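Q: Entry one of two.
A:
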Amino acid sequence: MRISFDRFVNLRLLLSVEGIGPLKLRNLLSKFKSLEKILNSSTTSLIQAEGIDKILATRISNIRLTKNKLQINLEKEYDQLLKIGGSVLTVWDTEYPELLKKIYDPPLILYIKGKYSEFDKFALSIVGTRTPTAYGKNQAERFSSEFAKQNIPIVSGLARGIDSIAHKSTLRINGRTIAILGTGLDVIYPPENKKLFDEISEKGLIISEYPLGTKPDAQNFPKRNRIISGLTLGTLVIETALNGGAMQTASFALDQNREVFAIPGNIDVKQSEGTNLLIQKGEAKLVLNPEDILQELELKLKPVIGKNIPKPSIELSIFEDKIISNLTNTPIQIDKISELTSMSTSDCLVHLLSLEFKGLVTQLPGKMFALI
């Protein structure tokens, strides 16, 4: 704990330097390899790092003089963090989430309450409007509950509306959920979610990149949204206006090369404008049920849900059903299928084409067919 705290002090000290942000800090680390070496380097050495001019180098050299004072203040903050059951992670700690570490701008410091689980790398995020329609509420509960049944952690932002429903629906069936805050861990927003906050911190995980005492300022939430998408394999958007925060989360997910899904909505309802636009522009995959997402991410989710992915119910005619019952994953030639089903070759081809459209059968060269 002390090694982690020392790193925490050095990191906060460097980030307090005017003009030093995550990018310049990474440039310094690529040259000096450790925070301690950066702080102990001369001005002449510092200006050799990319993006560090003489003014910045001088500021870094001077900041060392304030370390003792900062350390005293941070020890108080650290003690307060421990009192509320929190802890701190830096991007260099082994417990830091691997998925989040891979995004362009991962938070260098995370304040957490609860425990990070190995299964959290299979998480999905669910986001949406703070003022959902009855349809949006039902879909948020439906998708969250199904994912939780499949042992998939659900990440959201503890906001009113879709976020809160996603958290509550997951907890209702004893699933795991993670809340990402735009405030310090000691500032619960919205305040009416105090009970929900406590339950998540007890059974799941609360994460913030902001120090204790940080208020819910508007500029905090867009940054918060990149963590929601960055922690997960994919993001599901359920109802959002065109300028909603969920649209920002979807944009971050696309930039992070993560999957984006959206549920279509009523074209006459403002809350559906964002989701419908994401689908129309091809930025999100249209989903009608939880199985659509489970199948899309089947390979990535397999370690956590195995072969328990429910297949969507597809209506088959008696002829299609007859053909399906005679097919396997091993390709069969059309004449053999005709023989097995006691149907003409032409009839078989018609029904096989229909099964292809339904995504159940694939055609191979030589009029060979197999189950997908």
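Q: Entry two of two.
A:
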Amino acid sequence: MPKHVRVGIIGCGKIAEMDHVPGFKLAKAARVVSLLDADLGRMDNLRKMFGLDAQMHTDWDSFVASGLDAVVVCTPNHLHVPQTVAALKAGLHVLCEKPMAANTVDATKAVEAARKTGKVLQINQTFRYWPMCQVMAKCVADGLIGQPIHVRSFRCHGSTPDVGWSPGAKWFVSKAAQGGLLLDLGVHMADLMEWVVGPVTDVAAKVDTLTPGIDVPDNVTALMRFADGASGSLTLSWTAACNENVFEVYGTEGTLRTTFSGENPIEISRPGVRGGKPIYPKVPKRVPNSQQAFIEAILGKAPSPTPGELGRNAVALCEAIAQAGDTGKFVKVKRFK
């Protein structure tokens, strides 16, 4: 291994700009040395924006042969699995954007390719790297609210991502590109709910498409049963006239609540403790991000916190929600070893 892990970015759109390139700037043992995109102008803009000394490629073969150790897959969802598997087979470590796949069959193809090649496969389940989410998970695990009884996640935006987040990126709302609300926002919240409370056994759901001209879900409401007896509700929307993100865990001894913002983003209420005054756990300003964790896993310093197996579980829960919406019945969530 050279002094720096040589990283290539596949897809130079919004997520590369907002997350991955800035993240690798903080990873001292990494260098972004190659870019791959069908749009030369988009690649050049990314390179200039961050002062990257990176080659630009429009074809796969020259990109893979450009002296890389690892790649980041930042393309539309339907390309994640084929590009991940191809990169692993080429002997490269892979950091893949979420969702790693649209279903568990395809997710398993990526997991098995990583196991066969012995390369790192990390999924960019970003909430696992948010300081406040790490603190929330620890507070619940430490029993600060007692045994969880119910978890509620409510995340709504007033527009589809091709309008708000990344204007013109129509693949977000395309079934052919494996877009849709569940695989965009749901895969985040599904992983967070299971991380904080535990595995979900089965789900029921109502899944709708309300936006004219699209063929993917834009509104989802799901009910969940957890293995430890807790229940959960997940509400997602791209059409509600609000931008709101609320996560609450109700326990036998108190309640944890966050809106993911503010000076004190986590509030814990425990009747009878501290005179009933809320507790505001301290949240560190920064923890190792996904890109730093990826490099450490490649260098053998620590296992990845979000390997392909974890990403597959998040996909499994979203898959069950989609099936429940289609059937109108409770659906068992697939589990993998």
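A: Comment on entry two: Residues 308-327 form the longest helix (20 residues). The CA atoms of residues 127 and 192 lie 7 Å apart.
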